[in-house]
Design goal:
The protein is α/β, with parallel strands linked by helices. The chain has 16 helices and eight strands. Residues 404-412 have low confidence and may be disordered. Helix 3 (51-62) runs parallel beside helix 12. It has helices at residues 4-12, 21-29, 51-62, 73-78, 85-106, 119-122, 125-137, 140-146, 159-174, 187-196, 236-245, 257-277, 320-328, 334-357, 360-369, 387-411, and strands at 17-19, 35-40, 66-71, 113-117, 179-183, 206-210, 303-305, 315-317. The radius of gyration is 29 Å and the shape is globular.
């Protein structure tokens, strides 16, 4: 059985930042199981960047953490009205379907997870009273600053966007958790919660942050930018096309979404699968349990890049630092790295696509959640030239001028 220190290491490994880690250590030292929540607002279609937090949740379960998944439907509506309430309701169901499918594909036991819809408690009298109390002590400046990285910034911001950080802070209290988990882009909301929850008489929670995976073209991977992401239901052909077009300059390790995906997703999942093969994991059996390494790879390998034998054959890596150095030194060609990543993503998405294709209810929800936008074709305006009419118009314009010139000659 893991010691408190070992559990803490599992909980916090591969994270970019931890705020308030001592409170988690204290809970583990008491022999209690920490409670946490990870939330997502059901707006655009979920993309493969979600593999980062969802894979990390496997670590939480392994360390005995009780995990709640918040489907923040009220937040989705408030975020600059990206979708009306009716559409958000369908998207909430779609998110639950896809998250369950992803967890199942990774072997994460869903029986140990609790799904909660935000509206199930965010519309209660108590929650709203606390929201009003926050509104009475939070300045516009602090609210806007807290949501700067999460709520879309516009020239004339809506009041709904200013409410967003306060509601997320209150979620920690009403979900009864010890820490909140999210991307590092949530950091300002997390520090906002640490500042204001105690002012309402509530405990300050810890906050754990994972790194953000760059998009395929560099910059942030976003649901609103189809060229920056790969959706969970993309076909192998679409995956191949998007990976081929992705930014992956030879020797360049900065803002390289292909390289970063190996670090944040493929290597951690590969390590989880290796641990499962050794019997050291909470993961359940899945159709594809093989790590992303070749047969006969050296002991300790977590990722293999296949190369043609004339270029030296496959390269094996025990950690990301080795791969990063090899790519920077141009020992690994972008084409070979892309091929390895494409293969890994295709394998990860195959069981998710299969679950979707076998579930008629999910397919119906998908159509309701993301209806195809009808684009009206503009009718071309054809200009018909009429030479005779044009000649008549010319005569109408020129006749007075000609008459004037004639009159001037007579006067002279």
């Amino acid at each position: 059985m893991a010691t408190p220190d070992e559990k803490y290491e599992i909980i916090t490994r591969r994270l970019q930042e931890v705020l308030g880690g001592d409170s988690i250590k204290a809970i583990l030292a008491e022999g209690r199981s920490p409670k946490c929540y990870w939330g997502t607002a059901p707006t655009g279609r979920p993309h493969i960047g979600y593999f980062v937090p969802l894979t990390k949740i496997a670590d939480f379960l392994r360390a005995g953490v009780e995990v709640k998944i918040l489907l923040a439907d009220v937040h989705a509506f408030l975020d600059n009205l990206k979708a009306p309430l009716e559409l958000v309701a369908h998207r909430t169901k779609y998110y639950q379907y896809i998250l369950l499918a992803v967890f199942k594909s990774l072997g994460i036991p869903t029986s140990k997870l609790t799904f909660v819809e935000g509206s199930s408690y965010q519309l209660t009298r108590e929650y709203n009273l606390d929201n009003y109390k926050l509104c009475a002590i939070v300045s516009e400046h602090d609210a806007k600053k807290a949501g700067a990285e999460v709520v879309k910034q516009v020239e004339s911001p809506l009041l709904s966007g200013l409410l967003y950080p306060g509601l997320q802070a209150l979620d920690e209290q009403y979900l009864g958790v010890d820490f909140q988990f999210g991307g590092v882009d949530q950091r300002k909301i997390f520090t906002f919660a640490e500042l204001y929850l105690p002012r309402l008489g509530y405990a300050k929670r810890a906050h754990l942050m994972n790194t953000m995976v760059p998009g395929l073209g560099g910059g942030k991977m976003s649901s609103s930018d189809p060229n920056s992401k790969i959706d969970f239901l993309d076909s192998p052909g679409v995956v191949k096309k998007k990976i081929k077009a992705a930014f992956c300059e030879e020797g360049n390790v900065e803002e390289n979404g292909v390289l970063s995906f190996v670090e944040a997703v493929l290597m951690p999942i590969s390590q989880l699968r290796i641990d499962r093969l050794k019997g050291d994991s909470v993961l359940e059996e899945t159709e594809d349990t093989a790590p992303f390494i070749s047969e006969g790879a050296p002991e300790g390998t977590v990722f293999t890049v296949y190369r043609d034998i004339k270029y030296g054959g496959p390269m094996h890596f025990a950690n990301f630092a080795q791969l990063k150095e090899a790519f920077q030194e141009k020992q690994v060609h972008p084409g070979d790295l892309k091929s390895a990543v494409e293969n890994g993503i295709t394998r990860l998405l195959a069981p998710i696509r299969k679950s979707f294709e076998e579930n008629g209810d999910w397919q119906k929800i998908e159509q309701l959640a993301y209806p195809e936008a009808k684009v009206e074709k503009k009718k071309k305006k054809y200009t018909t030239r009429h030479p005779r009419v044009r000649g008549k118009m010319l005569n109408l314009v020129m006749s007075p001028l000609l008459r004037t010139q004639s009159t001037m000659r007579r006067i002279r």
